């Protein structure tokens, strides 16, 4: 085995406003970090460069970066477009730090609106909002036909409203590659609407890990209120048991809306019963948030759990490329 096989070399490509500036980074890249998050949280790109000779130009805010990285012998994976919104120059030694956020999210869905949504399906609501912003709607089949009794959008941006709507139905809203997505939590879709391919990692693949289980009896269930207009009273629905139930603040228009919200929150609580973090010294640029993950070679409780990647942080320089994954439980397993 030769040295190149034993020690793979990271590779990257960066363009600024359409111009390939990768050659300018040779010998200057101190670190490139990309944090990818699910839903409507913007991905964040941080690049730190050595400016020992004072030759680096400071990019303007609003400039557009395109980034791809991976391993030299495997090819590069496109990580999308990012808009520069923070720049810092420091010294000595002189360094230039650039922070950019995913272009799909920065400045998207601007403005606040007031609107009442009544007796519409989730698919119809997402299609309407996507049309306002020249985005293509992509809604999971199991969500598209769900009827929303009533929900108000009061002096609220479409971005915040979509986030709140997704939480009510335990769904993830996202904007990717000109598309507005609404998917079931744990059943992520790519920007093209295809199912996210699952991955399997063994103990040999990971270098550091952390597994934690929270107190399962913190909450026994979730209850929510709804207005019974016929009886002119407020009533309660329950998901789980009432022993130590969490209470949702909103009062919902119908019993179905309240029960849907309670069940969604109960599912989120159960998914948070256990967490898993894994650091890969040999990074994987293909791993994305909402990727289903199976583990092998750890403790039986860890291997038996179906995991879901919720956040990915890639870090690379000329000497190495690593990936940190944060995961939650996929589904509602039992913990011993």
Proper CATH architecture of the largest domain = Roll
Question: How much strand content do the residues show?
Answer: over 45%
Give me the CATH fold name of the largest domain: Phage tail proteins - horseshoe like beta roll fold
Helix-strand category: alpha+beta
Helix percent reads 10-25%
* Name of the CATH superfamily of the largest domain: Baseplate protein-like domain - beta roll fold
Report on the biggest sheet. Answer: 13 strands, mixed
Number of domains: 4
The CATH C-level name of the largest domain is Mainly Beta
Mean pLDDT: 85
Number of DSSP helices? Answer: 6
Tell how many strands the DSSP assignment holds.
21
What's the Cα radius of gyration? 23 Å
Which descriptor suits the 3D outline? globular
Determine the N-to-C terminus distance. 45 Å
Please trace the helix and strand order, writing H or E for each element: HEEEEEEEEHEHEHEEEEEEEHEEHEE
Flag low-confidence runs.
332-336
Walk me through what this model shows.
The protein has helices at 3-6, 122-132, 141-144, 158-168, 255-271, 300-303; strands at residues 10-16, 19-20, 29-37, 44-50, 64-71, 75-90, 95-102, 112-121, 136-139, 147-157, 171-176, 179-184, 199-202, 208-213, 221-228, 233-240, 245-252, 274-280, 292-296, 307-317, 320-329. With 336 residues, the protein is an alpha+beta fold. It folds into 4 domains: 3-102, Phage tail proteins - horseshoe like beta roll fold (Roll), CATH 2.30.300; 112-184, 3-Layer(bab) Sandwich (Phage tail protein beta-alpha-beta fold); 199-214 and 273-329, Elongation Factor Tu (Ef-tu), domain 3; 221-271, no CATH class. Strands 1, 2, 3, 4, 5, 6, 7, 13, 14, 18, 19, 20 and 21 form a 13-stranded mixed beta sheet that branches. It is globular and about 75 Å long. Residues 332-336 have low confidence and may be disordered.
């Amino acid at each position: 085995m030769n040295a190149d096989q034993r020690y793979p070399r990271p590779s990257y490509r960066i363009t600024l406003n359409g111009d390939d500036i990768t050659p300018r980074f040779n010998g200057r890249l101190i670190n490139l970090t990309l944090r990818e998050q699910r839903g409507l949280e913007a991905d964040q790109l941080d690049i730190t460069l050595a400016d020992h000779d004072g030759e680096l130009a400071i990019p303007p805010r609003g400039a557009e970066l395109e980034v791809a990285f991976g391993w030299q012998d495997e090819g590069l994976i496109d990580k999308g477009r990012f808009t520069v919104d923070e720049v810092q120059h420091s010294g000595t030694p002189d360094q230039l730090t650039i922070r950019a956020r995913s272009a799909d999210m920065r400045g998207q869905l601007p403005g606040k609106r007031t609107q009442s949504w009544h007796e519409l399906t989730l698919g119809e609501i997402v299609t309407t909002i996507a049309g306002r912003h020249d985005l293509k709607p992509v809604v999971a089949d199991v969500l598209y036909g769900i009827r929303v009794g009533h929900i108000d959008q009061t002096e609220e941006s479409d971005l915040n409203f979509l986030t709140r709507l997704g939480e009510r139905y335990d769904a993830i809203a996202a904007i990717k590659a000109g598309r507005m997505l609404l998917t079931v939590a744990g059943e992520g879709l790519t920007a093209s609407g295809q199912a996210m391919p699952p991955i399997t990692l063994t103990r040999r693949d990971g270098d550091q890990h952390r597994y934690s289980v929270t107190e399962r009896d913190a909450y026994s269930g979730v209850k929510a209120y709804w207005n019974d207009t016929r009886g002119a009273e407020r009533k309660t629905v329950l998901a789980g048991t009432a022993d130590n139930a969490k209470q949702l603040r909103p009062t919902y228009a119908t019993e179905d809306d309240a029960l849907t919200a309670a069940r969604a929150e109960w599912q989120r609580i159960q998914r948070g019963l256990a967490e898993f973090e894994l650091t890969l010294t040999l990074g994987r640029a293909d791993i994305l948030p909402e990727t289903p993950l199976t583990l092998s070679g750890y403790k039986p409780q860890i291997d038996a759990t179906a995991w879901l990647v919720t956040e990915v942080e890639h870090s690379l320089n000329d000497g190495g490329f690593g990936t940190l994954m944060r995961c939650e439980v996929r589904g509602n397993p039992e913990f011993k």
